[in-house]
Design a protein that fits this description.
Layout lengths: L7 H8 L1 H15 L7 H14 L6 E2 L2 E2 L5 H14 L4 H26 L7 H11 L1 H7 L5 H20 L4 H19 L2 H16 L6 H4 L2 H22 L3 H9 L2 H5 L10 H10 L3 H13 L6 H19 L12 H12 L6 H15 L1 H11 L8 H22 L4 H20 L6 H4 L2 H14 L3 E5 L8 H4 L4 E2 L6 H6 L4 E6 H5 L2 H7 L3 E5 L2 E6 L1
Helix pairs in contact: 2-5, 2-22, 3-4, 5-6, 5-8, 5-18, 6-18, 6-22, 8-9, 8-10, 9-10, 9-12, 10-17, 16-18, 16-19, 17-18, 19-21, 19-22, 20-21, 21-22
Length: about 525
């Protein structure tokens, strides 16, 4: 299985893989609009913080927003200060670059702790991490999850070096505390729970639990307390009291854990969510890990620590009330790299090949599926030239994957083909992203609304049936006035003058009386939205 050796070409590709990834995702990063769900809210919060001069306490349209720590919002604010406006490529760089750093940390960890007979798997392991479902999405979306993942991986890697007796112990203790704080400062409680629980479970397994405070020592814990104390003091002084601090420390931690007010899901949620999160390698990764455990193929301390980190975090997150698929991000690197570490212990077999042949079949069907979807459904906006090119890349790659799996019996080449086809398809498809921007965010509809307002000398902006439209102030330059979705829309519209109203066309079509009322009004369509001009 591991007989082949890395070629000079593969070593060169592996060396420049971070640059290749940046180029592959760049069209999407440059051309994509901010999503309505979270990204636009982050931009609005950053704008509000800059206007108010806030550093530690944030508001979203005047309401306290203690959901997230400051670090990522500082990055968004920095981009606005540097460029004078928000650029998605700059913000998403702080998702992609941490993913690339995590990739390199895990690669080095693998090579130093689990030496492989076949060095060419270095490239394969990194490709898998970059292109598996969850990381692929996080690479190009403005979220703090990959940044937190990077700091958690750094913290756990530092602990493991301390456990192995590598490096200066005092320095490693301080770094362990620093990385743990930065993980907390990026997204919150998971940033401390993983560096706390994963080493503890591993040490219990090694029957060395009594040494836990040798690693969580006074240097590590003291630095963590000092940095958290400075942060909480900043919050207290800026808020002139304890209300925001209480929200941050209790409502956003214990509240989410025990009886979530957002994203409440059953305990088995992650047993379902893990499959799309690891796609297209889900069956391969989970199957290899389960087989490795059942057949007692986990032999090194690194493999046992990665395995302990996976299941400790998985169980911990499953016990927490609030759940989202993205919360699994910190264990995805361990899933991927423990799989590669185990591959040197398994010969080629039909089960391994089948675990990759199923997604390969999906690849083959990508182009015909897109033709059907774009031409025979209401999703005709997907019928863009570069989307067809991307789908064609997948279909051709699928054929090659079958060839490598069953003719050459090379799992590694099949996975490499999967990974590189995703990067190439992302690059090609990225050029057609502007066609779907109106279905992602509000930038296009807001820009058109501003043009109409200036052209006709209108005074205000209103919204109706628009989800989270309060954050459109990022594009409108002023706060939008939201009409009440529960009241009679026609009565509300008749009371408006000198304004532009942005609506969801889908909701209009559900109300025939509203559609008839708007027939006599000046309307403009932008993607799934209608702009109504009321002079």
């Amino acid at each position: 299985m591991m007989a082949a050796h890395s070629t000079p070409l593969m070593r060169t590709i592996e060396k420049y893989l971070p640059l290749i990834a940046i180029v592959a995702f760049l069209p999407i990063m440059i051309l994509r609009d901010a999503s309505v769900s979270n990204e636009l809210r982050y931009l609005s919060i950053a704008d509000e913080a800059l206007r108010n001069g806030d550093i530690f306490t944030f508001t979203n349209n005047g309401e306290p927003y203690a959901d997230k720590p400051p670090l990522y919002l500082w990055i968004v604010m920095l981009g606005k200060l540097i460029f004078g406006q928000h650029h998605m490529w700059f913000i998403t760089l702080f998702s992609l670059i941490p993913a690339l750093v995590t990739m390199r940390i895990m690669r080095n960890w693998l090579l130093t702790s689990c030496p492989l007979a076949d060095k060419s798997w270095r490239l394969t392991s990194q490709l898998m991490l970059l292109t598996c479902g969850l990381f692929l999405g996080l690479n190009v979306f403005a979220r703090m999850d990959t940044l937190m993942t990077m700091f958690i991986v750094l913290a756990l890697h530092t602990f493991f070096k301390m456990f192995q007796g590598k490096g200066n112990f005092k320095k490693q203790s301080l770094l362990f505390g620093l990385y743990t704080f930065l993980a907390i400062f990026t997204k919150g409680p998971v940033g401390i729970l993983m560096p706390l629980l994963c080493p503890l479970v591993f040490l219990v397994y090694k029957r060395e639990a009594r040494t836990f405070f040798h690693y969580w020592n006074w240097r590590m814990a003291g630095l963590l307390v000092l940095l958290c104390g400075a942060w909480f003091l900043g919050v207290y002084l800026e808020d002139h009291g304890t209300s925001y601090l209480s929200n941050l420390l209790f409502h956003q931690t214990a509240g989410r854990a025990v009886d979530a007010f957002h994203h409440k899901k059953p305990f088995y949620f992650y047993l379902i969510q893990i499959w799309p999160n690891l796609a297209p390698y889900s069956l391969f990764i989970v199957g290899t890990l389960v087989a490795g455990m059942l057949k007692h193929r986990l032999t090194t301390d690194t493999e046992h620590f990665w395995n302990a980190s996976i299941w400790t975090t998985f169980i911990m997150l499953s016990l927490v009330s609030g759940k989202l698929g993205v919360y699994l991000a910190p264990i995805v690197p361990f899933f991927v790299f423990i799989t590669v570490a185990l591959m040197r212990k398994f010969p080629w077999n039909g089960w391994l090949a089948a675990s990759l042949a199923i997604p390969a079949l999906v690849y083959v069907l990508a182009l015909p599926a897109l033709v059907i979807v774009a031409n025979f459904t209401g999703l005709d906006y997907l019928g863009q030239v570069f989307f067809y090119i991307a789908a064609g890349i997948f279909s051709v790659a699928g054929i090659f994957i079958f060839y490598y799996l069953f003719k050459q019996r090379s799992i590694r080449k099949a996975i490499n083909t999967m990974g590189f086809s995703i990067l190439l398809a992302a690059f090609a498809g990225g050029f057609s992203v502007p066609a779907i921007n109106p279905y992602i965010g509000y930038r296009d509809v807001c820009q058109r609304a501003v043009e109409l307002s200036e052209e006709k000398g209108l005074e205000h902006f209103h919204s109706l049936y628009l989800r989270r439209s309060e954050n459109t102030d990022v594009f409108l330059g002023e706060k939008i006035r939201q009409l009440d979705d529960r009241q009679d829309p026609i009565a509300q519209l008749e009371g408006l003058h000198h304004t532009v109203v942005m609506m969801s066309e889908r909701h209009i079509n559900r109300r025939p009386e509203l559609a008839r009322y708007l027939q006599d009004k000046e309307t403009h369509t932008v993607g799934p939205y209608k702009i109504v001009v009321l002079e």
